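In this section we walk through a basic example: taking a raw amino acid sequence and producing a predicted 3D structure, encoded as discrete structure tokens. The instruction is simple. Fold the sequence below.
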Amino acid sequence: MTSTDNSTTHAGTAPIDREALRARYRAERDKRLRADGNAQYLEPTGRFAHCLEDPYVRAVARPPRREEVAVAFIGGGFAGLVSGARLTQAGVDDVHIIEGGGDVGGTWYWNRYPGAMCDTAAMVYLPLLEETGHMPSQKYVLAGEIFAHARRIATQFGLYDRALFSTAVTGLAWDEPSSRWIIRTDRGDEIRARFVAMGTGPLHRPKLPGIPGIETFAGHSFHTSRWDYAYTGGDPDGAAMEKLADKRVGIIGTGATAVQCIPPLARAARQLFVFQRTPSSIDVRNNHAIDPEWFKTLAPGWQQQWLMNFATLQTGGFADEDLVKDGWTEIAQRVRDRVVAEVSATGTLDLATIQRAFEDSDDEKMTEIRARVDAIVTDRVAAAALKPWYRQLCKRPCFHDEYLQAYNEPGVHLVDTDGKGVERIDATGVWVGGVHYALDCLIFASGFEVGTSYSRRAGFETVGRGGRSLSEHWTDGMRSLHGIHVHGFPNLFIVGLSQGANLISNITQNLTEAGTTIASVIAHALAAGADQVEVTAAAEQAWVELLESGTQGFLGNPDCTPGYYNNEGKPIGRRERLNASGHPQGPVAYFHHIDGWRRSGAYAGLEFRSRGAVREAARDEAK
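The resulting token sequence is shown next.
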């Protein structure tokens, strides 16, 4: 194949007309472009305010807390748990988790919809497996087992002892004279913390589709993250939803959550109407039990080895063996092998070769995924509508062995909107293309806020030195060192994906590395008697410039259908790039960099200041 070829042929497949495929991708994208972008979604307020409430634990009245703590962690998901565990291991045991839910778990506390499970192999997704001595039951485990693992971490590392649950932070402000963060909550608490870390999650605040008439529906409705088992019957452990046997159920959304909950809904409801704007790509999952005898043979340090093996292969690197063997590593290995073949044939390795290998491999993979739809779904009209016409990484790839099969159930109806979305909702049902679908229950699988401001998603504003808010500091996009430290916000640590590894295929590895870094910095500050630790303006700027020196991958791909991976198809400006950026050489390079940075003990870019130095700096700033 040469660079001018418009088609490719692979063993066992028909030729792929690349130009025709690109034209189809663009046409399908154009159908879905909207002028309102992220503004198309609604906040769950008014009659939908229950989407933000806790259906599992009723808050118990308690007196407001007035106390001083060493470390406060806002958020009780895996970010807070792994950070708390690493701090405990570093000898810092005065760690207080503040969590709006009634228990730890974060995503896995809230999301208890039927069929919920991890999309990344549990051996690398579940953090601290070696430290807790836990063996996952399957390659991909159900939500209940993940929630139980979160509780296991909290129990083993004593994080329950000082935790505040059913408590939402309403304000966070820096007090310069005392070098303390003042945390205020909806329970009237005022907590003064020497250090604060925030792990409020990239996908946790539910959003609703801005469909005209959504508030007029008179039947029962709920968001998937607040599943109403009292109405549906069943439970999070998989019991049949017997109360839906006589119900007409509609679900809006066909993303990763819907892919998991639609199969059990298909088995339970008298009729299920799936309203689809854009189909997900559905690859094989092939879940299986983990053999305890094999698990016992794993040598100490196995999980870190698996983590780096997965990250390396998933991002196109080389390894002697694929330890995880899943859909994430498969597409990356296809690209890598195609590059090797091209270089062997031409003796040339350049950006054009890599780009061509990626496109050819992706074309081949997506052709297989579309062929899988035809092989499974018996209704030809439904099968045609379920085929994804975009590159695999334009939307989050899904892996499932029951989703496509659900459309063969006699009571399941795919209502494809041809990219337009639902037309409107009224008191009795949903309108699409001038056709009314009467419903008893309407479920919103519309996901979570992504493109909104950090403070809105967190639910509070963070005010640093001089009264400057984090929102102000990030007006033109996120600024940090390593995605963790922010200038003007001493003793504050951010835990997330952006401006670090940005490894979307295994979010928990990002969190574990950040937690390890935070524990190392705080332990060093305490040992050194430092009252403040802060990144310098120069170090923050240098990190931002490093991030901007790299490419942005698929973020601005013109063939990508709109979604949260690409700012809903809106222009990708500097702000959007900074908010979604990662190390320019990829996740593995970041992990190596941050590990070396920690191990050096120099903590380059950070300043550790004692109280005397703080006062001197304040005088200099006032002059």
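Looking at the output, two observations stand out. The CA atoms of residues 17 and 576 lie 33 Å apart. The chain is about 35% helix and 15% strand. In the next section we compare this with other chains.
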